[in-house]
Design a protein that fits this description.
Strand order of the largest sheet: 1-2-3-4-5-6-8-7
Largest sheet: 8 strands, mixed
CATH topology: Aminopeptidase
Strand content: 35-45%
Helix content: 25-40%
Structural class: alpha+beta
C-alpha cells in the first residue's frame, strides 16, 4: 500500500505521515515553551519556520513511516513517532510525542499512543516500546499508563533541561 496516503483513525481525529506543506501548522503548534520544557533539546524553542523546513524532510522520507502528525479536523496539532534502535537493542523502539497545548486534557495523546503502539508492533519486528518522562511531567506519565505502559525505572538525575537537573522515568510496553 502507499504509505503516503496512510491514515490511522482516532476517536477525535487521525494520524498520518507528515508532509512538507505541514510547516505552517507545525510552527504554529510547536512554538510553545510548555511543550518544549518536556521534550529533548533537539526540539527547538522558539520553533521557527527554518526549524520546520529542516525537520520535515527527515520525517517525510521514512518508509514505512515512523513519524506521524496528530491531526484534528484538517490541521496537524501534534506529533508522535518511534525511533527504532539498533545493535542489541534492535527489537526496541523509543516512543515520543507532543500535542498542541490548546488540545491538552482531552485524551487525544493517549488515543494516539495506543494507535502508534498497535502500528509499531504490526509493522516492525519489535518486542518493546519505551518512553522517558521527565519527573516534573506527571500528565505524560499518566498518558503512558493509560495506554498500557509499565513504569520500569527511575534514572536518577539523568536529564538536564531548562536549567534543571531531574530524574527520568522510564515506561515500557513489551509484547512477545
Amino acid at each position: 500500500m502507499s504509505h503516503h496516503n496512510m491514515r490511522i483513525e482516532l476517536p477525535q481525529g487521525h494520524l498520518r505521515p507528515w508532509r512538507l506543506d505541514d510547516a505552517d501548522a507545525l510552527v504554529r503548534h510547536a512554538n510553545n515553551r510548555h511543550i518544549w520544557q518536556n521534550l529533548r533539546d533537539a526540539f527547538p524553542h522558539p520553533y521557527t519556520a527554518e526549524d520546520a523546513d529542516r525537520w520535515l524532510p527527515t520525517a517525510v522520507g521514512n518508509n514505512p513511516p515512523t513519524s506521524f502528525a496528530i491531526v484534528i479536523g484538517d490541521e496537524p496539532v501534534g506529533g508522535i513517532g518511534i525511533v527504532p534502535k539498533d545493535d542489541v537493542y534492535r527489537r526496541s523502539a523509543e516512543l515520543g510525542y507532543w500535542l498542541s497545548e490548546e488540545h491538552w486534557g482531552r485524551g487525544i495523546t493517549t488515543d494516539a499512543v495506543r494507535a502508534i503502539v498497535d502500528y509499531a508492533f504490526a509493522t516492525f519486528d519489535l518486542c518493546r516500546l519505551y518512553a522517558g518522562v521527565f519527573d516534573w511531567n506527571p500528565a505524560s506519565a499518566r498518558v503512558l499508563e493509560k495506554a498500557g505502559f509499565t513504569f520500569e525505572a527511575r534514572l536518577r538525575r539523568a536529564v538536564t533541561k531548562d536549567g534543571r537537573t531531574a530524574d527520568e522515568l522510564v515506561y515500557a510496553l513489551v509484547r512477545d
